[in-house]
Structure formats: C-alpha cells, structure tokens
Amino acid sequence: MNQRQLLISDIPGLMNAGAVCRRVRNNCVLSNLESMSEQQRFQLLIHSITDYAIYMLDPTGLVTTWNPGAERFKGYSADQIIGHHFSLFFTPEDRAAGLPAKALRTALAEGRFEAEGWRVRKDGTRFWANAVLDPVFDTEGQHIGFAKITRDITAKREQERALYESEQRFTTLVQGVRDYAIYMLDTDGRITNWNSGAEAIKGYTADEIVGQHFSRFYTDEDRARGEPQFALETALREGKYEREAWRVRKDGSPFWPAWCLTPSSMRAASMSASPRSPATSRSERRPKRNWKMREPR
After folding, report:
1. How does the average pLDDT of the chain come out, rounded?
2. Is 15 within the bounds of a domain?
3. Residue 27 sits in which domain range?
4. Number of C-alpha atoms within 13 angstroms, CB side, residue 93?
C-alpha cells in the first residue's frame, strides 16, 4: 500500500475522530452550562450580546450593571459608569426638560417606557436610539430597579430620512409638471394624489378628485365595456397599459390623450396613471365624433 492509498484509507477514521471530538466538545459545553446557576447562565447571555445596550438601574436611576453592548454603544467601561445616573446619556436639552425623570415615572406607573431620540456617548457624539425601560420587582413584589435596553438605530433613521427627502424631491418635481397629468391610484382604481398637470388637463382640483374612481375620466361607452377595469388588470399582468382614446374633462368636454398606466414601484400593487400631454390637436390620429356637453357623473 503506497502513501496515497494509506491517506485515503484513513479518511473515514479521521472523519469519525472529528465527529467524536465535536461530540465531546458539545457535551463539555452542555455540562458546563448545566453546572451553572440560572443567574450565571443569564449573565452569560447578557454579556454575549453586543448589538444592544442592556443594563440595570436602581430605583433612582443609578447604573448598577453594564454589558459589552452598552460599552460599545456608549463608550463607557463598567468601572467608569456603574454608580452614575443614567441621565448622563441624555442630551442637555432632554435633561433640562426632565425627560430622564419622566421615563422613570412612566415606566413605574405604566409598566413600560419606550422612546426614540438622541443619546450622548462618552466622547460627546450623538446617536439616535430606541430605548425601552421596564420596572423590575423582586419575588415579593417590591420595586428594586429598572431594566434598560437601548439600540442604536442611527443608520435606520438616516435611511428613512434619505427616503423621505427623496420622496419630497420627487413630489416637488411631479407637482411642477403641468404638461402631464401624473397621479396615483390604489389597487381599486381610486385616486390617491393629483398633480398640477392633472388639474390643468382634466379640470378637477385635488380636493375634488382624490378618493374618486378614475373611471370618471372615461366615456360612457368605455365604462360600459369595462375598459377601466381592463386597464388595471392589463397593467398588473403585463407591467404597462398604453392607449390613445377619448377622455372626459370635469366640464364634460372631450379630449384625446396619449395615456399610460403602470404598476407603481413606490407601493406594492398600487397604480400610477400618467396621461401624457393631450394629443387632441393631432386630428389625423383621432376619430371624428360629435360630443354633447354634459356634467360629470
């Protein structure tokens, strides 16, 4: 038997040996955990968490315990912070407004206090936190302190703010367009917003039309044929619905727009309707028809 054959023949044994080592190691871990008291296991759990600041306060708000997550978020070691009041983590504005004391009172009176706001690290920098404060009672029901859990959600807040600002810029852009009617529909076809172009082209103000069904822009014949529902279904199924056809303004007068309906990427399953500039002047592309002025239905 050569060296290669010897190595290959030893693989099953090596794999079995590895499995045995893993079982022994796991059994040792379980044995160590079982030998710990419930309090020791709980402390081990808390000190293993680094994504949350988890610590205890006494009834007056003094810090009594400190985990690695708290040290990572706030910058204080346990030796530096234990025995100090938790108001140290609040901004000067919140301290002046009495927020730390209010948090303690609310948690004790209502069983919980939760808030988002700026908190201050040891180096003076601020982070946006989600903080939860719960009262702690002993086995006899005596209030002995508070449990405090804080999570740094600065990144989440910045993402939400960036999204909001992007939506605001988009809204401003859309509202400034007057050559196009651009508006949103819900999944049932009811109008949820309205731009200045839609008002100029169709004659309705936002107060008059938001909440109404978009089928009111269709002719009686198109509504009877179920054209509005067909447009919604086609847009959802194929990703777009485009057509040029007669539509009706608020005053009952007809116009001939190029019209596009697409499922919106802003909200799942809702619709965005964007009738392009009226093509009424292109008489060679629209059928001749006599219209009677009528009130909108």
Report:
1. 78
2. yes
3. 11-38
4. 5
Q: How many domains does the chain have?
A: 3
Measure CA 18 to chain center.
Answer: 45
The pLDDT of residue 40 is above 50: yes
| pLDDT (average), residues 68-79 | 90
User: Do 167 and 109 belong to one domain?
Assistant: no
Residue 210, judged by CB atoms within 10 A of its CB (0-12, 13-18, 19+), counts as middle
Query: Phi and psi (nearest 5°) for 260?
Result: -135, 135
Among 152, 171, 205, the domain-final residue is 152
What are 12-18's contacts with CB under 8 Å, separation 24+? none
Q: Do 31 and 93 belong together in one domain?
A: no
113 and 145 fall within a common domain: yes
What is the pTM assigned to this prediction? 0.49
Same-domain check for residues 263 and 201 = yes
Strand order, beta sheet including 143-152: 53-57, 143-152, 126-137, 113-120
Q: Could you write out the DSSP letters of every residue in 129-165?
A: EEEEEEEEE-TTS-EEEEEEEEEE-HHHHHHHHHHHH
In our burial notation (b when 16+ CB lie closer than 10 A, e otherwise), range 61-100 reads: bbbebbbbbbbebbebeeeebeeebbbbbbeeebbeeebb
Query: 160: pLDDT confidence band, cut at 50, 70 and 90?
Result: confident
| 120 and 203 co-located in one domain | no
How far apart, in whole angstroms, are the C-alpha atoms of residue 49 and residue 81?
A: 18
The CATH number of whichever domain residue 177 belongs to comes to: 3.30.450.20
Q: Coil, helix or strand for 255?
A: strand
Closest to 274 measured CA to CA, from 284, 261, 283: 261
Both 55 and 86 in one domain: the answer is yes
Is 291 inside any structural domain? no
Asked if residue 43 belongs to a domain, the reply is: no
CA 39 to chain centre: 37
What would the pLDDT profile of 43-69 be if each residue is shown by its tens digit?
655 566 667 888 999 999 999 999 888
